[in-house]
């Protein structure tokens, strides 16, 4: 790997620098500098097993940018980014506010370094903030004073859950987490999700999971069917549905490459104007998820 201008191995006093953090590993994979030696060692161990991990990170970031742009183009003016990670180029507020300067963004993360650096960047931005919270404690996020200051849940909103639910084990009920955020949304809202999968690289991904067992964040990979099931509360999908992240509305066909190398599926789910939707007249950009009944 090429040399990078890394941060010094010091951080906020409450930061655990003895074990790698998923947020800081992801930052390293994206070429960021907000990581410590323990994170770089874990990331290099992952790359030794699965070089496609860098592709995963880049494609996930590109998916995030595209869904935010899609939301802005379809009238969304507020975003809740769950498990937002460390700030890097192309953050949600940068993408959204480039088109709509007063678009509102709340970032949520449980990694102190991520929150500290995000707040440093957002210090003079009145329309964006970052809160330190566990995304699985949905009420603490939804009722946080900063969340309520910036977001109006009576109006359409986009929830972003990109590369975060594969760090939520089954006993923490990731399906409940999605449902409770979906239940808080007004009609005409969206929920974007990406999730790592073992489908195409089962042996390598098993080794990656073992590496993450030694970090602060164990990984829990799921199949396309399981990922689709997590989105059951919002069974209308923006085209093309649940696909590899590189396949979701790419800006150029060449960007797709080998879709399986993205190592993750992604989707943008839509909450229709009425939850009791029963007719065929869906918005042109949406379709019902295969195998799901309307709400």
Structure, explained:
The chain is of the alpha/beta class. The chain has one domain (22-277): Vaccinia Virus protein VP39 (Rossmann fold, 3-Layer(aba) Sandwich), CATH 3.40.50.150. It has ten helices and nine strands. The chain has helices at residues 22-29, 37-49, 53-73, 92-99, 112-122, 138-142, 145-150, 174-183, 202-212, 224-230; strands spanning 78-82, 104-109, 128-132, 158-162, 190-196, 236-238, 243-244, 264-270, 286-288. Strands 1, 2, 3, 4, 5, 6, 7, 8 and 9 form a nine-stranded mixed β-sheet that branches. α1 (22-29) crosses α2 and α3 runs parallel beside α4 (92-99). The longest helix has 21 residues, at 53-73.
Q: Characterize the largest beta sheet: strand count, sense, and whether it forms a barrel.
A: 9 strands, mixed
Count of DSSP-assigned helices:
10
Terminal CA distance reads 48 Å
- Tally the beta strands: 9
Calculate the mean pLDDT score and round it.
Answer: 89
What is the CATH architecture annotation?
3-Layer(aba) Sandwich
Secondary structural class: alpha/beta
Could you please say which CATH topology applies here? Rossmann fold
CATH class value: Alpha Beta
Beta content: 5-15%
């Amino acid at each position: 790997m090429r040399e990078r201008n890394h941060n010094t191995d010091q951080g906020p006093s409450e930061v655990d620098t003895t074990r790698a953090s998923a947020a800081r590993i992801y930052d390293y994979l994206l070429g960021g500098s907000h990581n410590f030696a323990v994170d770089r060692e874990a990331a290099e161990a992952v790359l030794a097993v699965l070089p496609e991990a860098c592709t995963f990170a880049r494609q996930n970031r590109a998916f995030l940018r595209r869904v935010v742009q899609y939301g802005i183009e379809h009238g969304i003016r507020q975003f809740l980014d769950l498990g937002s990670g460390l700030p890097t180029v192309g953050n949600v507020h940068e993408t959204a506010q480039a088109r709509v300067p007063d678009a509102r963004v709340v970032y949520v993360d449980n990694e102190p370094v991520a929150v500290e650096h995000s707040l440093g960047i957002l210090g003079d931005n009145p329309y964006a903030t970052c809160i330190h919270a566990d995304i699985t404690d949905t009420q603490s996020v939804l009722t946080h004073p900063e969340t309520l200051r910036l977001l109006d849940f009576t109006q359409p909103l986009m929830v972003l859950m990109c590369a975060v639910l594969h760090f939520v084990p089954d006993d923490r009920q990731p399906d409940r987490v999605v449902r409770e955020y979906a239940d808080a949304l007004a009609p005409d809202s969206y929920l974007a999700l990406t999730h790592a999968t073992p489908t195409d690289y089962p042996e390598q991904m098993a080794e990656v999971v073992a590496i993450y067992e030694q970090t602060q964040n164990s990984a829990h990979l799921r199949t396309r069917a399981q990922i689709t099931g997590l989105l059951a509360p919002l069974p209308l999908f923006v085209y093309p549905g649940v696909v590899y992240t590189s396949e979701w509305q790419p800006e150029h066909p060449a960007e797709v490459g080998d879709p399986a190398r993205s190592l993750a599926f992604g989707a943008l789910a839509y909450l229709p104007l009425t939850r009791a939707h029963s007719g065929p007249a869906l918005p042109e950009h949406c379709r019902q998820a295969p195998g799901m009944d309307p709400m």
